[in-house]
Structures are given as C-alpha cells and as structure tokens.
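Case study.
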Amino acid sequence: MLSYYVQTALRSLRRTPILTAVLIGAIALGICISTTFIALRHVFERDPLPGKSQSLFYVRLDNWDAARAYVAEDPKSLPPQITYKDMRALMRSTIPVRQTGTFVSRMFVFPQSAKVRPFREPIRLVFSDFFPMFDIPFQYGSGWDKAADAKPEQLIVIDAAMNQKLFGGGNSVGKTVRIADRNFKVGGVISPDWRPSYRYYDVVQGPVPAESIFMPFNLTPVMQIQTSGNSDGWKDYGNTPEDFLNSEQTWIQFWVQLPDGAKVQAYRDYAANYVQDEKKHGRFQRPLHVEINSMPELLEAFGFVPKTVKVMSLVSLLFLVVCSLNLVGLLLGKFLARVPEVSVRRALGASKVQVFWQHVVECEVIGIIGGALGMLLSVAMLSVIAKVLQQGNGNSVTGVSLDLEMVAVSIFLSLVAGLMAGVYPAWRICSVPPAMQLKLQ
Amino acid sequence: MHIGPLIRAMGRNRTRFALIILEIALTLAIVTNCLNIILDQRKGMQKRSGFDDDNLMFVTAAPFGTEWKDPSFVENTVHADLRALQALPGVKNAAATYFLPWQGGGSSGTYRTDGFNGKFQAQVYPTTAGIFDTLGVHIVAGRGFVPADTPADPKTSTRVTVISSGLAKKLWGNANPLGKVISSGEGKNPRTVIGVIGEFYNPSAWPIGDFALFTPGRAWDSSGTSYLLRTAPGAKKAVLGELENGLLKVNPNRVLKTFIVSEVKDSFFSTSRIAIDGMTGLIIALIVITALGIVGVTAMSVAERTKQIGTRRALGATRGDILRYFLAENWIATTLGLLLGVAGAYGLNLFLLSRVSDVKLPWQLVAAGMLLLWINGLLSTIPPALRATMVPPSTATRSV
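After joint prediction, the assembly is written out as follows.
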C-alpha cells in the first residue's frame, strides 16, 4: 500500500511542477539551515568520550587573594587551574583509580633528517595515566608506565601526523628525536583514528586542536620546562624556576578518574580536608571552595559553545517551523483543489483513513526529497564554515561536518517538517463528505 | 470601502489567515532578534584598537642555538634585530614587545594605587622605547619611553609606566594621572606614571580590554621575543619579502613566524563573522519564504474567488476596488501578525536572555522590523491581487 501511496504522490507532484519545486525548495532551505547550525553546535557540545566522560573529574581550588576573588566582580569565581604544590599534594590520594596533572609547553624539536629545519612545537606534559584515562588509541607501542613517571624517563608519545613528519611514518617505537637539549625515545604512536575536534582535556585555552607530542610530567622540574599556556597568579614570587613551582601561580589542569558516587564523595572530602589543613598554614584564605566537576559539567560550565552558535541553533529550528507553516498554506490550496477527484475516490470506496494517509505520504515524500537536498546543502555550508574557522592560526575546532548522529537528526527533522506541513491539509481533504462533492459535479 | 464584509469573508477562511498571521508573527520575532545579535556582534567588531591596525605586522622569533642561553648575547641580538628591521625600506618603526594586538589575550596582573579603593586588574606589557610610535597611538599626556628608561644592567629598570587613558579614567577620574604611583597588588615594585596614551583596546579573557600598563623592559629571554612593526601605507608586501631574511642574517639559529595584524584581527573575529553572515542569510531566506507564502495564499484565494470577483466587477466595482480589497485583506492579516509578532519578539528575546544571550531588544529595532515586514507583506500581495483585477466582469454570467 505504501508503495502505491508513494507512486500516487510522485504522480501528483509531477502534475504541478512549479508548486512542487517551491514546496521542496522551502523544506530544503529549512533543513539546510537547521541542520547546519545544529551540527555546528553539536561539534562543540558532543560528548568527547561517551560512556567514559562521566567518570572523569576536573579539580579546582580557590587559592586566590583573600581580598579579591579571581574575577573581582564575582566572589564565587575561582581560578580555572591549580598550583604545582597543590597538584603534588592531591596526587598523594589513593582514591582516584587514575589521575594526571597536565599543561602545555613549547619546545624545539630537532628532527634527525637534515632536510627538516628545527621547529617549535606545543608539547603536552602528562602522567602515564593520561593515555588510559582519555582513551587514547595507539597505532604502535603504548604510553609509558608508572616507573617511567617516577624516574622520569626521556620518553615521548607522538601522534600519527608527527610520526609522518619526523620519521616518514611506519613503526617508530624505539627511535629517538632530540627535543630541547635532550634525546627522547618514542614509546608510542597514537592511532590516526584519534582526531578529537578540540582538546577536551584542556578547557582553559578554548577549543584548540590537540597537541602532537606528549612527554612525562616529571621532567618539568628536571628540565625547567615552563608552561606556554595560561598562568594566573595574585602573589609575587621569586625569579627562579623553583620559586615558580612553589608559588601560588595556577597553571596546571588536574584530572582524576573516580569510578562511582561513593568515590566521588570520598574524594570531595579528601580535597576539602586538604584545603582545611593548608588554611592552618596560612594558605587558602578565602572561604572553602573546592570544585570537582565531571567532564560534561566542565564543558558546560566553561561554555565552549559560542553564544551566537547557541542562538543560531535555536533560531534555525524556528525557521524550519516557519517553512512548515508556509507549506501548510500551499498544501491546503493544492489539496482542496483536488476535492472533486478525492470525492470520486471516496465514493468508489476509499476510506477516510486511506485518503488521509495518501496525502500524508505525499507530504512526507516532499519532506524526504527536500530534506535530502537540504542535507547536501548543509554539508557544503559546513565545509565553508570549517574553512572560515581554520583561517588564520587554525586555533579552532576541527571536525566541523555532519556525523551519523547529525544525519539522523536531519532526517528526523525532515520527517517532522513534512508531517507538520501535511497533517492539517490531509485531515481537511479526507473529511470532505463524498456525496456532496458528487452532487456538485 | 466596506470593512464589514471584508472581515466576514476573512472569518470564513480562518485557517488560511491564521497561518499567515502565525507566519508573520514568527518571522518578526526571528528577524528582530537576529538583527539584534548582528548589531551586537558588529559593535564588537567595530571596536577600535586605537592602533594603526592596517599597517601593523609582527614576527615571533624562537631561537634554538645554545648561544641563546647567554643573556647578553640575546640582548645584543635583539638590538641588532631592531636596527636591521628599522633599516628595512618601508618600515616606519619597530619595537620588541610582548604586546601583540588582537590575539584575544595577553598578560595581566593585579595592582593597587593611592586614590583607588582596593586592587585592580590591568594588562601589563614590558616593551622597548619605540612601542607607541610603532603602534601609531597618540600620547595624550606626559611622554613615552626613551632608551634611557631601560638601563644596561638587566637587574635594574627605571620605575616608570605609561598607561592607557581608559585605566587613568577608571583609577582617578578626571584628575591628572601624571606622577601617580602604581604598585603590585602587595604594594611592591612601585612605578610612576609618566605618560598616558589616547586609545587602547585589546580584548582579554577578563573585562580589562581598555586597561593597560606598559613598562620599559626586556621583552625577551632565552626562549625568544617578538617584534612589532609598522610599515608605510602600501609597503606591507615589500616588507614581508625582506623581513625574515633580514632577521636571519643577524642570526640564523631561530624559527621566525610572521603575522599580519589585520589578518590576526580577522581570524579573531571569525566566529562573529560566521554568526553575522549566517544570521543575515537566515533573515533574507526568512523574508523570501514569508513573501512566497503570502503570494501563494493570496493567489489561491484569488483563484477560488474568480467568480465572486467577476460578479463584483459586473455590479460596478472598478479594478481599483478589487485591488484595494485584496490589499486591505492582507494588510489586516499582516498587521495582526505583526502585533502578535511584537509579543513573540520580546518573548524570544526574554528566552534568549535567560539562556544564551545578553543583549536586550531595543524597541526601535522592533519598529524597524515591523516596517520591513509590513512593506514585504504589501509588496507580495500586489502580484496576485493584480491578477485578480484582470478577471473580466463577464465571468459572472458564465456558469461553471
């Protein structure tokens, strides 16, 4: 029956080509715009680690100036990162199953091949737990172990693109490369499939593509590595690297993995107790404020989604509603012009329900054709947007495109739009009594 | 014209007019809110930095040779670099500085001063003497830096600062800022204000875009420095061709990266531009769609009433009467839609305010949106209404 309805619908659409083009064009426009902006929002909002992100928690402590909050106008604000000494103290806890402090530095990389000039590269300092915590897949080798953390060993993990750049690809585990003034052995190569839209493990610097080189955190004091990211402070400190490590400067992002609610509570208590202890030593002079947020909470709080993108995604849905409203009017006219034909069908035995479905199917055919067209258009629009975003320093999200989830949303929207447009006209046409129409003929 | 029969006729076609009214209401709500956001974004984009943005560029220089561990080597190289840059044809001035415009951030600190209650936050940038001439900003009071402000001994520096007029105003209102002393949040490192620059704006993570302290100092260390350059109008391309070679001639052991400030600014505003372009496209599409809807519905109502129109014509109605009838009918629908739309516009604005946005909807914008849609409604009624006037009076006498 459905295929018959579809055939009837196609025949009916062919009979009024101009009207059909307008109908399909309106749906296509609505779907194109709504899909584009919902997909754009989705790029910023989608869960980077589905199933895992709920167990990853980001820790913040308010070690700021007693006289003035981190954001002076907002007494509830606290610095987005923590100090080196607080990270060391928090890492003594055994409650988290995994934990890592992390920051980004910029160092010189000296490729062995004489053809490639030395280059300065953002390098992320992490503990061994970083790789399993953030589910980073490896193509060759692996991350390093706790022993390498403790030593610390001169090991690095590189991504597939860096592997290509330094060694021309292939299994490079065990090869060495000079970074700053030391030689580093490659311990693992990250799989080329790992292409996050942005650094979801670093919410402070905004949505920026991931680094290509990872290095053991404990080399920081040994090599006097400095952060190239944000470092916020309120208190003067000395000039030496040790002074910096012991200062109230906040520059480290700290993540813990807590498997269940009980552990989360235990860890909150642990962190609060630590701050209370430090208060006795004259630190943390502001009211006790410890924030332990899961990754989704954090991404929500740090507002990666530009507000204009949020507004656009909302408004674009309303736009689709307007397009559908438009279709209601046009379809109503089209269907009512067909009253005599329908009344003959009704008189010949077609039921009200059948007439109704026949017309709804016609609307859905319009919805699907228009939706498919709109989706194609939105793929083009998204690629233009991706280009604009990548302009300049390329400091923005990557992966601006339709993923499967968004294709499904787009199809769903097309069907809803077709239904919204079609139900009322279809109901009107099917409730025309057949006898009267025959009389009029 | 008799309005009574017109209203009664509309009442008989309730659905059709309800659709038009709803559509126009939604369109007004969306259009005004989108326009509002566009205007807000444009305001941000048009905020002037106070610098000669169009003729500025900067180079970051990151050294990798071992000789760079020696501070005096670095210092000598920086001075040699500056001389080389200033000697390039087309370069007006150059400075070594950590201040680079339109990066969306910079460095900041907390300070205090007499006459201002509590601490305040401001952007802070150590820089060499040529900075203000390089940026192209005016010094409105006092003086800029001279080389003597940065003494040879790196451990000392003249305890002076040049601040932005925005900061001077915040701290001391209209009082003379020259000679005032600003020290760190803990009361250390006092600096005397020796100059005030006219305009300064550099977006920061904090709301301190207008507040800046420049200090005479070494904007370099073993990890490198950056140079800001102002070129003569039109000389940008020529300078770009020579720039990196000139610096590499001074010392080849470093990686250079050149940025053109107008491009940096463009990339800083890329999300704003997407928003503006996207919303503009949306508004246009919406108006076209609404116009199409009105045309479609009116055309249908004309087609349905061909016989009635013919009858009216036969009874003496002129073409003008018919035209006026359809225009009046749509005028009423549009006006009702717009009235509903005003409520919708403020409703949507309230919703956006509570969730995502922070710009209130000014009434002027709503009025402008109403006018726009009103004209749009009128114009899109005319073509089908003109078709209605073509119906000959003889239609009345023909039977179906």
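Observations recorded in class. Residues 106-214 of chain B form one domain. The first strand of chain B starts at residue 56 and ends at 63. We will return to this complex in the next lecture.
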